[in-house]
Design a protein that fits this description.
Elements: H1 4-27, E1 31-33, E2 43-51, E3 57-65, E4 71-81, H2 84-101, E5 106-111, H3 114-121, H4 129-141, E6 147-152, H5 159-168, E7 175-178, H6 186-193, E8 198-200
Parallel strand pairs: 2-5, 5-6
Antiparallel strand pairs: 1-8, 2-3, 3-4, 4-7
Helix pairs in contact: 2-4
Amino acid sequence: MLTISNIIRCQRLTQSPVQLLIIRNWHKEPIPVAWGKPEVGWTKLNFDGSCKGKTGKASIGGVLRNHKAEFLFGYAQSIGKTTSTIAELAALRRGLELVIENGWNDVWLEGDSKTLVEIIAQKRLVKCTEAQRHVSHINLMIPELNNCIVTHIYREGNRAADKFAQMGHQMKKPQIWRNNPPFQVVPIMHEDAEGKIVLRRR
């Protein structure tokens, strides 16, 4: 039979890991995230894929801006049922197609999928046939550019591309915006241009 002192000690043992976890979370500092402008003469492509968990319906979106953070191009498209990885790859692939079609040669590619960025930057092979097909097309297009860098950014710094991807879910056919962005994206772009910092909670 447990005494009162033993019951109290057992409660302490069972509660201790939870308490420690909470304390650790309290002490983690939020990460400041901001979208960064490219260098003069460079074009920056932010891309994103969106996948609805229950339905599996996916869409893509992206935005291209210059060194003044001025809007150049935006795109959004529904791509049917697929995985989030395929959606991210399709978003980058479509963005690169637009980059090449419009003759931009010095390009900064940025997305919020760290795994995808590593696959492209390190030219890694992937097991999924469909994913590898996208990767192969991307790897063929990148050498067509004079200069190209690929970086990862947290979602808080990729909000404009995320908005385009979300809009893609509502599209019955692919849509492109040139020079004038859709009104839904304008506030985010203004904040990005001003260097607004968004805190990422860990």
